[in-house]
């Protein structure tokens, strides 16, 4: 019989995969991996501010991640190089969060849990938040699926079809901020981008359509969660990094299959 905390951890990881699967596909298609990384780094500032103002951590991380995403988007619209804006804001927000935490008197929370995740400590209320957030992200992407795909493939074609590419970018920005807020306790700020990118990259070699890729990316996230938790229990390794490592194994297997298909 599995321990109760392992069941909670598995449920949390599966709920997160509902969001990271389809969203990760768009992150790859739009080459937004660094954008997701920067948004996740900013979440640490949100954690520190949440403790400073005794606010819920999920609310603080969501607000800060959303502010970061909107700030980067605004800078890009004004002609600033996207990679430079992401680099400056991401590392500044991460440093500011760690510095802010050092000034909070009586803070007894180890921020490393929010940097690298602590999925084994999730509570039943955390599971509710994670599943609600994952369902909201999945529902939002499903609702805007065709418009998002069209805007991703060709923005001029999207405009001709009456679709506003800037609105679809905002949808992805909102989805990314919500995913970061949900994921920070599971895999941590430093590993969130990995769970967005690696399962989707593993699924790409097997997919025949965008919809299949999104579904397979979700499945890969679930398998990585279960495999990482098993490895963590078996080898006494940190759960968050173990989940990411399991996802990397799935990606390596996908590369092997792709090479065998080309050879055949």
Write up what this structure looks like.
Helix 1 runs antiparallel to helix 9, helix 6 runs antiparallel to helix 9 and helix 11 crosses helix 12. The protein has one domain: ABC transporter involved in vitamin B12 uptake, BtuC (Orthogonal Bundle). With 264 residues, the chain is mainly α. It is 80% helix and 0% strand. The radius of gyration is 18 Å and the shape is globular.
List the helices and strands and how they pair.
Blueprint: H1 4-29, H2 33-52, H3 57-77, H4 82-102, H5 112-116, H6 124-143, H7 145-153, H8 155-160, H9 165-183, H10 192-204, H11 210-235, H12 239-263
Helix pairs in contact: 1-6, 1-9, 1-10, 1-11, 2-3, 2-4, 2-9, 2-10, 3-4, 3-9, 6-9, 7-9, 10-11, 10-12, 11-12
CATH class division: Mainly Alpha
Strand content: under 5%
State the CATH topology.
ABC transporter involved in vitamin B12 uptake, BtuC
Sheet/helix structural class: mainly alpha
**CATH-defined architecture:** Orthogonal Bundle
**Low-confidence sequence ranges:** none
Overall tally of domains: 1
List keywords for this structure.
single chain; 264 residues; mainly alpha; ABC transporter involved in vitamin B12 uptake, BtuC; 80% helix
């Amino acid at each position: 019989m599995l321990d109760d905390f392992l069941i909670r951890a598995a449920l949390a990881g599966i709920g997160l995969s509902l969001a990271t699967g389809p969203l990760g596909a768009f992150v790859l298609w739009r080459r937004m991996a660094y954008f997701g990384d920067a948004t996740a780094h900013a979440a640490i500032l949100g954690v520190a501010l949440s403790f400073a103002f005794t606010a819920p951590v999920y609310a603080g991380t969501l607000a800060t991640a959303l502010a970061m995403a909107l700030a980067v988007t605004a800078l890009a619209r004004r002609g600033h190089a996207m990679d430079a804006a992401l680099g400056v804001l991401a590392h500044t927000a991460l440093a500011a969060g760690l510095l802010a935490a050092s000034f909070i008197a009586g803070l007894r929370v180890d921020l490393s849990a929010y940097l690298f995740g602590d999925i084994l400590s999730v509570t039943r209320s955390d599971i509710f938040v994670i599943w609600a957030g994952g369902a909201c992200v999945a529902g939002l992407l499903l609702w805007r699926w065709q418009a998002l795909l069209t805007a991703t493939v060709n923005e001029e074609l999207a405009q001709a079809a009456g679709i506003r590419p800037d609105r679809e970018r905002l949808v992805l920005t909102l989805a990314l901020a919500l995913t970061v807020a949900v994921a920070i306790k599971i895999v941590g700020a430093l590993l969130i981008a990995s769970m967005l990118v690696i399962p989707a990259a593993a699924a790409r070699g097997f997919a025949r359509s965008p919809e299949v890729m999104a579904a397979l990316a979700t499945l890969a996230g679930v398998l990585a969660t279960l495999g990482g938790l098993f490895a963590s229990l078996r080898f006494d390794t940190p759960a968050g990094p173990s989940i990411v490592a399991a996802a990397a194994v799935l990606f390596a297997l996908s590369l092997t299959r792709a090479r065998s298909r080309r050879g055949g």
